[in-house]
User: Fold this.
Amino acid sequence: MGEDLEQFKQRIPLLEYLQRHHWRGHRVGAGPEFTGLCPLHEDSHPSFYVNVRKNLFYCHGCGCGGDLIRFVELSRHLSFRESVAYVQEELAPTAELLAHTAAFYQLELHRYPEGIQYLAERGVHDARIIEELGIGYARGGNLRPHLQAFGYSLERLLEAGLIGPQGPDTFCRRVIFPCRQQDHIVNLYGRSIGNAFPHRLLPRSKGGLFAWESVRQFRNVILVEGLFDLAVLWQAGFRNTTCAIGTHLTPAQLAQLRENPDLCVYIAFDQDQNQAGQNAANALLHGLDQAGLHVRLVDLPAGQDPNSYFTRGATPKDFAHLLEEAASL
Ligand SMILES: [Zn+2]
Assistant:
C-alpha cells in the first residue's frame, strides 16, 4: 500500500468506523473511553470498550481486543490483508470524491467574483493563504454534471451528501474550506455568502483539528471556533492556529491536543452577546486543565471573534498583545 499502515489506521478513528457501522457507545466519564454492547459476541450488557486516544478496543466479555484492522478481521472474518483492503476500499472512494469536489470549487472561486468578494469582506485577501487552504466557491447547480463526467453515479453523490435528496447541491452560494487530515479530505465546510444557514458540513465526521499536521509542531497553539478566524490569523502570521469548527471538540480532537503534555493552548472563541462562546471556552478550559494542559483564555473585545477583530482594523501586534494578556485558570 502507498502509505504507512499506522498512518492509514489513524486516518479513520476506530470509534468513527464503529459508529458508521451503527455501534452505539457512550462515553465513560470524562476519559478517552467509550463503552457499549460488543458487536463481536452476543452481549447483554456493555462489555465492549473503545479507547479513542489509543484507537484500540477491548471486550471484557469475549476477550477480543486490538485496533481497527483487527476489528475488521474479527467482525468480517477476513484475513489481515483482506481487512486492510476492505478498510481502504471503504475510505478511498469518498476521499477521492471529496478531492475532485474541492478542486472543482477551487476553480469556481476564480470564475465567479462573489466568492472572492465575500472573502475580502471577511478580511481574507492573501492569495497564497487562499491557495494554501484550498478555499473554493460553490455557486450551486453545476457540481453534478462535473462529477458525473468523472464517472460518479448520482447515488454516490447522494450518499456522500454532496447532493440533497431533492436534487439540489448541498453547497450553494457558499465559500468552501476542505477539511484535510494527512493529505486526505475528510469533509467540506461551506460558509453561506447569502441568507442561508451560515455553517454547513457534509454529514460525516469533521475530522481532527484543522491543519493539525502543521500546527502540532508548536508549543503554543491558538484554538479558534471558525475557519475565517483561522484564515485571518494565518494571514497575520499566527501559523500556530488550529480550529475545531465549532466550540465542541470531538474525542479525537481532544486526544490531539493531549499528544504533547507541554502544550499551551490559547482559546480564542467568539465573545458572543449571548455568552455561548464564553461558556464553551470556559468548559473547554476546565476540561483541558484537568487533562494537565496549560490553557489560557484570550479576552477579545465584547461581541467579537478573531475574524471580526482583524476586519475592524486590529494589527498582528494587537493580537499578540491579547495573547500576552490571556489569563490562565
Ligand atoms: Zn465481546
